[in-house]
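Encode chain A's predicted structure.
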Amino acid sequence: MNRVFYGTFISHAKNELKNLDYLLIRATNGFLPEKSIDEAIYYLKKTQEHLTQAKKELQTSNTVKVCQNSLQP
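Encoded structure for chain A:
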């Protein structure tokens, strides 16, 4: 079950990076107004949040596995 949540968070992070990629292409061509900079920062923060959540899910999943393995005879 945790793998599903882990994968979902990674997927969300990838989508945020796609949004950021578009802004960076515009910046390269000289079309990056101040509002777009704020938008790029927003997408970076969202990406960080999703990856942090994925890491927590992965750690929780690993902890559960260790506990389950230690309980088996």
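The longest helix spans residues 34-71.
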